[in-house]
Design a protein that fits this description.
single chain, about 60 residues, elongated
Length: about 60
């Protein structure tokens, strides 16, 4: 893996690219799927946190009767 990292610029894909190239497509695909789900849930948490801060800062209250 160090040979891939030191041979110049890493193409698009970053850590996923290095894992897929060094450990093979089967393991790289499994890591890629887990990486995708992790990023998807992280984005959801970032959005919820931003909305929560916005609601706290503006005093917006959504009451449903």
């Amino acid at each position: 893996m160090s040979a891939i990292a030191t041979n110049g610029k890493i193409p698009a894909g970053g850590s996923y690219y290095m894992i897929a190239r060094s450990l093979g497509p089967a393991f790289g695909g499994a890591v890629g799927i887990l990486y995708y789900f992790g990023l998807t849930s992280a984005v959801a948490m970032y959005i919820l946190g931003a909305v929560e801060i916005f609601i706290e800062a503006t005093g917006f209250d959504m009451v449903v009767y």
